[in-house]
Amino acid sequence: SDDTNHEVMDRAPDRILLGRAVNNVRVYVVDEHLTPVPLGAPGLIAFSGVCVGRGYINDPELTQASYLVDPHREGTRLYLGGDHGRWHPSGKLEFLGRRDAQVKIRGFRIEIGEIENTLLRVPGVRDGAVVTVERADRSKHLVAFYSGPKPLDTGTLSDRLAESLPEYMVPSAFHWSESLPLTANSKIDKKALAALAEAPATTDDEHQPPVTSTEQRLAAAWAKVLGVRQDRIGRRDHFFDRGGTSLSAVKLAIALDRAVSLKDVTAHPVLTDLAALVDHGPQGHTTPPPTSA
């Protein structure tokens, strides 16, 4: 059902990796090659059997993409919709959401559902959603929201997603809450999340402007690379929470005449910490302050 965010159906525990029999219909959870995914892994929900119709009216292209030959049962047709799900060890099929959200990030066309499904596989993540946010320079970046018992380390989340996703599909920021906002149909309210993602990272009361000359020069470089106003960059801001990526970290290093490296920005993403590294160096030796290009 599309009216619930997590639809769970009870089924018998037979042959879980090759689909489950539901009366005279077989239900699979498969990857893009129609291969059944491992138990607990997210994938596309597919149906095989007498329930499969002939196709969509007046839409041969969509029919060809969704109505296929079942490679696991000779002489049987299969319907592959846009629903993601996963099998539980208890024999329940969990509905995880739709796969019709496609966006273009840095020239790559990606499926938001693929990122969300990967996020849901991280231990400690109960629900998750990913939204796109447009920067001042009109470039887009991904922001993830998740719920769970407690916040998880942002670096750990990034690393876990990077294990199975390319770098351009790893969100630049992760936000935790005890629960995610829902629509009237009990779906995750992505419009509300997008509004939260576009809100300033800090309020005026929390904003701490750069103090030292190095912090101010770093803030100017951050603003240039991230496409935000310099007066919105605070000394306690996190580079990646403000929309930074590995690519923009490299651009930052170039803008600062290599006073910092990609490794430095990754290890010291908070502006004041990065400024201290520039001022004193990794071993406490003072280095010349950077100049922005």
Structure commentary:
- The protein is of the alpha+beta class.
- It has 3 domains: 8-95, Luciferase, Domain 3 (Luciferase, domain 3); 101-198, 2-Layer Sandwich (GMP Synthetase, Chain A, domain 3), CATH 3.30.300.30; 213-280, Non-ribosomal Peptide Synthetase Peptidyl Carrier Protein, Chain A (Orthogonal Bundle).
- Helices cover 25% and strands 24% of the residues.
- The chain has helices at 60-66, 112-120, 154-162, 190-198, 213-226, 246-255, 262-267, 271-280; strands spanning 8-10, 20-22, 25-30, 43-49, 67-69, 77-87, 92-98, 102-105, 108-111, 127-134, 140-147, 173-177.
- The strands form 3 sheets. Strands 1, 2, 3, 4, 5, 6 and 7 form a 7-stranded antiparallel sheet that branches. Strands 10-11-12 form a 3-stranded mixed sheet, sandwiched between helices. Strands 8-9 form a two-stranded antiparallel sheet.
- Strand 8 and strand 9 form a beta hairpin.
- Helix 5 crosses helix 6 (246-255).
- The longest helix has 14 residues, at 213-226.
- The chain is elongated, with a radius of gyration of 23 Å.
How do the strands and helices of this protein lay out in sequence?
Layout: E1 8-10, E2 20-22, E3 25-30, E4 43-49, H1 60-66, E5 67-69, E6 77-87, E7 92-98, E8 102-105, E9 108-111, H2 112-120, E10 127-134, E11 140-147, H3 154-162, E12 173-177, H4 190-198, H5 213-226, H6 246-255, H7 262-267, H8 271-280
Parallel strand pairs: 11-12
Antiparallel strand pairs: 1-7, 2-3, 3-4, 4-6, 5-6, 6-7, 8-9, 10-11
